[in-house]
Structure formats: structure tokens, C-alpha cells
Specification:
CATH superfamily of the largest domain: Response regulator
Structural class: alpha/beta
Radius of gyration: 20 Å
Helix content: 40-55%
Number of domains: 2
Distance between the termini: 53 Å
Strand order of the largest sheet: 2-1-3-4-5-11
Length: 340
Amino acid sequence: MKKNNRFLTIGISVVAAAALVLAGTTPSNAAGKKLSSIRIAVVIKGLDNPYFVSVKQGIIDTAKKLGVVANVQAAPGLNDDIGQANKLDALAGQNYDCYIVIPITSNNLSQGLGKVTKAGKPIINIDSPVDPASLKAAGGKITSFAGTDNTAAGKAGGVSMLKLIGSGKKIGLIAGLAGNVTSNARIAGFEAGAAGSTFVGPVNADWDTTKALDAANAMLVANPDIAAFFAANDQMAQGVAKAVAAAGKKIPVYGVDGLMDNLNLIKAGSVTASISQYPYVMGKMGVEACVVLAQGGKVPAWTITPYGVIDSSNVDVALKSGNQTPPGGYKDPYAPLIKK
């Protein structure tokens, strides 16, 4: 029953977040602006994770291509929620046409977003959703969300892993920050995809390689029959892979994100797979959505961005393309709405 409640909570959170999105609306500040006059403020997570470097690159490249201004501010560190909130507060009172945010925790940006909403500015939330209850309390509203369905991505990893090891085996779970919505969804999705397995953990390693290494070491000592590991991001998967190698074992290690470093490790054989998100695409979509709104248009309330499992069967293709976009393309609801 406890596990079922976890899935229910995740589902309710997604529905509640969607209810706080202004579907099909045009913000009051929209004035049909020319591309060259559009100014976008962006607050993302720390650039000490390559994932967010890719998000930033997608934003910068798209802004340059469209001829708009994008001021990208990153949190001082991956887990510095207060520092990130201060970045948004500094931008909230300035005259930007639209704001793009990726919160570190589900509620650390809610107060700043309330200020942005009260100023009549649209907000595009990408990657990690803002907590609907704290956002509502602060008087904030999200205009559009674009991000991975993390539960579905985790489930795809679980299904893939079962094909390798079979059912009924013991799997170690390494999570990110305690209480983090993204981490919780990935872990819960993986457990659903690998149903029938015995799970050790999850143990929180704060998205950190070294902490994941230590956690995996402890798990292997206490459970020498662990048959595989799933880590909620690629950086932690790298730490797990080191622990597995040090223990002299050859067992599958899965991560999430599709970072180039991890793809090289998949090629080398030390990491087995990564459920690849496409952070460059998320950054691109964020800018496109802001441009549509600044031009007086309407955008979808909720957009699921692409993901896919990368393993030895397709890693060469991903490496060759830089893994910026999915090999088979993707549906972009924002780009066709931009007035060039």
C-alpha cells in the first residue's frame, strides 16, 4: 500500500501543477513585439552539472538564432537553493518580457515567481516542476511547462534493465536530493518498470558522484548479491560505476540524463545505459515559448519533451550527434507559432 500511495502522490502533483498553468492564455504584457526587442530572463540550476550547461547552450543558441536577448543566470551551485532564489529576486523587478525557470527544489523559487506573476509577466517552467501549493500561496502562475515525464523515463529504464538481468533480482537505488520531485519520480518510475525485483534503498546521494560512490560501496558490502544499480542521474551513475569496478563486479549500472561523459562510459563499457533526456531541446523550447508569448501568441499549457534509453546498441549514433536532439526527431509545439 505504501508504494501505491507514492505513485498516487506523484500523479496528483502532476495534475495539480497542470491546474496552475494558464492553458491557452496570452499574458497581459504581450504586445506583438518584434524579435529584436524581446528580452528574456532565465534562472537555471548550477553549471557544476553538465546537464544544465546543455540547457544553457540550447537557450543561448536559440536566442541567437531568433535574434532575441536572453539573460541566463545560473545558481551558484547545484544545491544552492537560496542563492538561486536570490538570482530570480534580482531579475523579478526588471523589465523582461518573459521568464524561464528551473527550480532547485520544488518551492525555492515560488516567492520570486509570485512577484513575476504580479508584474504581469509570463513564466515558462522547464525540466523540474514548481510545487503548485507553494506557487499558489505566493500568488504565482506558470504559463507553460516543458519537461520530461520523469516517471515514464524511469519506467523505461526499469523495463530495459529487466531485459538484461531478469525478474526477481536485487537492485540498488541511488536517489538525488531528499524530497526532490524529479528524483522521486525517476525512482518510482524505475520501480514500476522493474516490478518484481527486490530494491535496496533508495539512498540519497544529492546528485553527487562521490556521495553515490560511497553509497554504492556501502550497499555492496551489505548486499553482495546486488545484481544491478539504478541512479537518478548520470553523475551519480559514474560514482556507482567506480564502486562496482572497485568491488570487482560486472553488473549493469543505469543513469539518467544522457550526458556526453556518461555516453563515453557506455561506449567504454563501465556504465551500461542512460535514459537520455535532451536538455538542449528543453532550453530551446523555453526560448521559443517566451518568444511566442511576447509576440502576443498562445502556447500549450504542458509539453512533454523527448527521452530514450541509450546503451551499447545506439551509443555511437548519440555520440556522433552530440546527443543534442533525438535521432528520430521530436515534436516541437512552439516553433511553428513564432512570427519571423
